[in-house]
Structure formats: C-alpha cells, structure tokens
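TICKET #2291
ISSUE: user wants both folds in one file
ATTACHMENT 1:
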Amino acid sequence: MPQLTALDAQFLHFETATNVANIAGLAILEGDVNRSDLQALLEARLPYIPALRRKLAPVPFGLDHPYWVGEDDLDLDYHVREIGLPPPGDDRQLAEQVSRLHPRRLDRRRPLWEIYLIHGLSGGRMGLYTKIHHAAVDGVGGADVLAALLDLTPVPAPPPAGRPEPDEPTPDGLEMAGRALIRMSGNPAQAVRFAAGALPHLDEIPLVSWIPGARLVSGLARRLAGSQVPELPSLPAPKTPFSGPVSEHRRFAFVSLPLEEVKQVRKAAGVTVNDVVMAVCAGALRRWLAVHGGVPDMPLAAGVPFSLRSAGEDGPGNQVTIMTAPLAVHLADPMERLRHVREAMRRIKDRFSLAPARWLREFSESMPAALMGLASRSAFGLVGQTAPPINVAISNVPGPQFPLYVCGARLLTHYPVSVITDMSGGVNITAFSYDGSLDIGVITDRRMVPDAWELARHLREALDELLHAGLVGDVKSLG
C-alpha cells in the first residue's frame, strides 16, 4: 500500500483544534437524492476511488509517515449522513450548516471523508456537502473524487469495464519500523541537498524571502547557475483584520457569477480568466477593508496554489505548491487593479513554467518524520502570531462546461469550501467554473470576518465594477 508523502503528512501534522485541513464542496442539486440511492452508487464506484476506501495505518512510535491501508469493512451508514433544514430552508441557513460541519475534524480511525445530504432547501433543491482530508487529496484530486460520483445523464453509468487493481499488501509493524530507520539515516543528507538547492529559490519561500539579503543571494545563485527565470516581486504581508491565528469557528458564504461576464472582461482587456478572478477578489477585499479597519497602502499577499501534476496526470496525494502573489487592493481604479494583477501573475507563471516551485515538497521531505508533527504545529503557532506570510488564499479551479447529475438529480452549482490557517489568514476564496457559472465559496474565521455574505456580495459588486469601468468594448487590450 502507498505511504503518505512528507507533504501529505504535513496536512495531518499541522492540525490543531483551530487549524483543520478539511477540503470540501457544497453541491446544490435540483430535486432530492435518496440516501439509499447514494449509498448504492458509492458501493458500486468505491472500488475505483482509492481515496474513499483507505484509512491511515501509523508507523510504530511515529518514526515515519503513515501508510494508506484498505478498509475491509467500510461503514457507509457512518460516512453518508443526512440532515434537514428548518423552514424556510434558504441559502443562508444552508451556509450556516456548512459553517458548523466544515471545521469538525475527521475520525482518523476511518477513511477520511464524509458526505451530508442536506434536505429542506427551498425551491425544490437540496445540498450535498462532501468533505475529505487534505492529506488524501489536493484540489485536483478532490475534483477527481467528485467526478467519480457524477454522471453525464440522469441515468447513472455502469461501473467501468474490468476490475480495479487489488491493493498491495500492507507492511507489518516491523517492516514499517525498518523502512523508517533507513529513511531517517538519509534525512541529514537530504536536508543538506535541500539547503543547497534552495538557494536559487529563496525569493519563492514566504518569510525567508523577507530576510535582508535573501533576494540578493537568490538572484546571485541563479545567475551563477545560468538560470534566466524572471524575478519575483517582493511581497511582505500587511497587517489586516483577518491576519493572525484563526479560531475554531468558521463562516461560509457563496455566490455564482456568470462566466460569460468574466469572459467579457477577459476578452476586452486581453487577460486570462484567472486574472479577472484575482482582480474581482482584489476589488471585493478592498471594499470590505474600506469598512473594516481601512485599506492598506500596499498590496495584500495572496497565497495561490499551483498544481505540480503534468497534463493528464492523476494519482493520490498532494502534488501542489503555493506561490504568493500581490493583490492590488491599494489601487482605487479597477482597471489599474486588473493591470497590476495581470503583470504579477504573468511574472509568476513565467517563473513557474521555467522552474516549478517545488520548495514546499522538498522542504517537507528533508525533515525527519518523527519531528515533523511538533515542528509543523510550532511553526504555525509562532508564525501565525508574529508575521503571517499570507493575508488571504485564493484559488480558481476550471471545471466542466456541461450539466452533470448525481443519482438522477441535476447539479446546479458547486461551491468549494477550503482551508484557512494561522499562516494563511482568516479568509479563503475559491472559485470553480461549471456549466456557464463561476461558483465561488468564501470561508472565513468567524472572529475576524463575522459576515462572510458581506464579502460574497462584494465579489458581485467587484465584477460589476469591472464591467462598468469601460473595459467592455471600448478599451484597448492590456496584453
């Protein structure tokens, strides 16, 4: 059976009562799905979805990262749950229910996922909230898990032809310990290699890039190596009302924006859809900050995930890194904000295409597994209270542009529900494009941003601002 990578294990180790590594999605369906029908669908497809049928097997004494092992007696009555909303069953009640469900830690003695059927939503709709641990999947992997439960027509497709490959046998405790000792013997050398290899990439690593002389050393190391990758912008994170340690409580809200309107701005300005999404987030956060604590005179530092998967590559676990990008909330003009975003994202993408930022994965692999848990929690606590490297996390995931179905019910919208931590700040905005709509989930810390709906409303207003700023039809391309 596969062993968790060091990066997968990081998502287990940093968890505390307040930092929780659940990633989820809230699907809104037209109609009502029966629990027994969903369980029957899962029963048929689970053999082809490894992330849902495996649980953790710890290594003795915590000497190494855990292994994934098959669950012989998967209890679907435990994993598939249903709840009902009281009348009137509106969207705010649905979001409040998700706010309560999302920060609850998953039981590590079982496969790390739960599905909730949420009945009673107004307008003949229902909610389907699916939660899985970040140690099992990254954003791309999570979308693949969801896709395995969806169909192109109201009639569920039969299981794939052929039998899934059987799981490999799990090593016993003695073999696990032996492998751990071998791995530990290589950690010092791996740490030295990481330190040497990290020199050209110091400007990519949050906090490290702020150390005086770090960017100079990074640039010099690249020149000596003959590398011609673009320089990255210097990006300290200003203090905001949503900076610092998060509480154990969350707030969730969602909004759908017409994808065609986003594309109108994209075409008129000669930018990408992702540039528009980032600019919309910048506009919304500027509006929120203007009312709550004031707009800083410099960009926010936004954490933007990048996938390390090759085209068409799938597989379990996390193959992701994070880059910091400036988010120009300090600029009043929406056109200037979009231009600033476009230039920053272009430099980051050019840099990433030539030298993918693998520092997060390589740093995790260089640390002894036995020390990783304590080191991760200590680092999160210390950095979160002193100088968080990121103000806000923003992600944009492209999805299918055609209707999908779950047990015959049409999927109307799908809102991501992501992670906030002490290091990343108390706001996460994640967008998913589906069937002509840009579905955006906003998760916040309740203490820092008590009303997530206010921020969601500002996203709609920020897109309107771009549309009405003369960007459509009569403005020259920014490209």
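ATTACHMENT 2:
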Amino acid sequence: MIINNKNVEELQLHKSNPDYSTKKRQVFIIGSKGIPASYGGFETFVEKLTAYRKSQDITYHVACLSNRNGRFMYNDAKCFNVFVPQIGPAKAVYYDIAALKRCIQYIKERDIEHPIIYILACRIGPFIHHYKKQIEALGGELYVNPDGHEWMRAKWNKAIRKYWKYSEKLMVKHADLLVCDSKNIESYIHEEYSEFHPKTTFIAYGSETSPSTLADDDPNFHKWLEERHLRVNDYYLIVGRFVPENNFETIIREFMKSHSTRSLAIITTANDKFLRDLENRLHFETDPRIKFVGTVYNSELLKKIRENAYGYFHGHSVGGTNPSLLEALGSTKVNLLLDVGFNKEVAEEAALYWNLEDGNLAHLIDEAEKLTSTQIEALGQKAKQRINTAYSWDYIVTEYEKLFLKE
C-alpha cells in the first residue's frame, strides 16, 4: 500500500485539539505491528477497524512498530511509531511495554477522560499489574484480546511456552474486559480462569466476499500460474505460516496417498529446517503434485489464486478465528478443514472436515474429487453466506464501535 500526503501527515498534537473533547472516546490500540497493514491478522484488523469506521465519536490511536519515532495520520487514526531495538524474541514484549508507556504518558499530558487501552495478545502479563494501576488512576479501562493458544505453538521451546501461559493468566486476571474473537476461546477463558471471574465479550474477526479486482485473463495472474506449472481449477491450496501446528505434514502425507491428479500449491513462509525435516519424513519431492510456490503479498492476486483453486486445506489447530480461513471461505468453493472447534465454529455446514487419523484426509480428498458442479456451487454459496452473515468487516466494526461507545 502506498502512503501519500493525503492519508499520512506529521502531527503537532495540542491539548486544544478538538479530538480530545470529552465527547470523543479515545481508544489506544497496542499489539499490532501497525498500519498500513502489510501482513498479519492483527494488522489487518486494525486496518479494517479504522477504514470501515462509522462513528465520529471515536478517536483511534495506533501503535506502530518502526525503526524510527514519529507520528502520522492514517485512516483518520492517530498513529505513533515506536522504535524497538533488535533484541530477539523479547522484541515483542519490549514493543508492547514501550507502546503502553507512551499511551499512558499521552493520556496524562492531555487529561483524556475515560480512555480505553486495547491490547492485542497476552505478551506482557508479568508487567501488566503495574500499568493497570496507572490506567485505573487515569480513569481508563484495559481491554485485552487473548488471541489463540500461543503457549501451545510448537515453535516455542518449553520455557517460552511456560512464559506465554503465565502471561496469559495475568492478562486475564487484570483485564477489565476480554474481547474474544472465537466463542471457543471465550469458553476456554471462563473454564481455565474461573477464579478471576473474567468479564468477556465475543466479537469475531472479519473478512470480505467481494471478488478479486483482477480479471480472469489478468496477465500477472496467468504468469504466476505458468511459472509454477499450475492451471485454473486444477490445484488445491494451502495458505499459512509454515509451522508444525498448522499440520502441513498431515496434509502433504495424505495428499500423497490420495488419487487426485491435481496439484497441491503451498503458499507459505520460509522455514528451511522444517522443510528439510518434512522431506526426510515424507519424501514429497518425489511427488510432482506437491509444489511449494513461495509467498504472495499482493492481496488481490492472492484472492484470485484462492478463487481459482479447486479446494483449500486448512489445518490450523491452535486457537481463535483464523483470518486465512475466513478469506478462504469468502473466495474458495470447496474447503477441507481440520475438525476442531475453532474451525467448525466458523464454517459450520459450509465445509468438509477431516481428522488426524491415518487415511482420513486422503479419503476425503478422493470424495471431494467426485463432487458435482452443483454440489461445488452449493458449498461455495454456503461459505460466502457464512461470511456475509457473521464475519463481514462492516458488521464486525459496528460491533466494536458499540462496545467502545458503551458507557
């Protein structure tokens, strides 16, 4: 996304600015890498929250991870850069704390009444009590989005997973409100942390069903297909981070067992060690159908790729409403999802489901190959209707605005 002078300008912020009127609700958002969004679920959420906003009674302040300090306007939100040194895995914790300090100082200096600080994810639990007291003293409230089960991710070692779980516990304990984007996560919060009597609400993540702006004969799309030896409606698709908990191993192994003559196109991030480990176990390089096709950061091109896939595999097993699943339901007709509560909550009857038992997914793939055009169209319509009914950005932003403006 190109930033121009129309939507980005350096700010000189003064106490007399009308945005600091008591009639405006000031909402400070911490935890995303910032906007404009280039990737990531939280970044896209903040982008859409500010872009689709309807109420003029809310002013958004958005922390942005940066290699320099400064302020700018984007989508009528007041964005502030937070410089963070390269300190490895602790970078995200440093960033959230630094952003939180900046917000508290900003609120103090401008005597902002009844501010809301909304923290995305549970990274700074061991430190939050100290800052919660300051927020309370300022008459503010602390909202937290607990995200998914970060402490279950296989990429973290045992010590980091322990930190994540402990941090989650303390964020739940001190939050005035937990905004859960999954009903399964909301239930988990109440069951796991009943001792704190957590106050929660459910507002899902959003998506769109509008078609790609690229034409069917777009040369960039067809060049992308040709370079990867793919054809329209003749490939299955995976889009997601290349990590074990997304069950790439199961999907690839089962696809190799299936009788499908289509390709499996895998759009994912680089992880050389995981790739070597999978090859050593599966020997997928001997199967010409299995194609790792790199990453795609052009959102319209990615949408076009989804629209022209025969089917989409979703193997995410770690918590929350996953953005890539919503995007698939909005664009791809045949969706084959891992049978866990998070995924079934989203897709309901608009998808086909598989489990981790040997041969289960391979059988489902073979059955998917037998679907008639009428059955495929019906699945596609159900999927789009599911997004339009419960996950449209217009609806999600309306729900957030009701929440932020509620006295």
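RESOLUTION: both attachments delivered.
EXTRA DETAIL ON ATTACHMENT 2: The chain has 14 helices and 14 strands.
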